[in-house]
Amino acid sequence: MTKETLLFALDAERLKASGESITVPEDRDATFIVGGPGETIQIGKVVRIEPRSSALCLETAKGERFWFSYDLILGLQLRSAKSAKEQGAGFAR
How far apart are CA 27 and CA 81, in angstroms? Predict the structure, then answer.
């Protein structure tokens, strides 16, 4: 994903930059899919996104900070935090 594509997607979801970072509101849940051929990981519960010139920094709700080059970003999932909590762990009652 290019920086321009990422910024377009965030803008389409009405997530705007405040200074050098973009804060994900509490009512939204953001997950980034990152990786290359053969292996991908998901970075969930992203609360702040810092799109720098040649790298992207993702900060999670746990305070973890991950740095990636834009070409490693494969996708972005945004949904309401309410629907994420309702989904649960996949077990039915």
Answer: 5
Asked whether residue 75 is assigned to any structural domain, the reply reads yes
Q: State if pTM tops 0.85.
A: no
Number of domains the chain contains: 1
pLDDT in tens, 13-70: 999 888 899 999 999 999 999 998 889 999 999 999 999 999 999 999 999 999 999 9
Terminus-to-terminus CA distance in the chain, angstroms? Answer: 39
Domain that holds residue 49: 3-82
| CATH number of the domain where residue 48 is located | 2.30.30.520
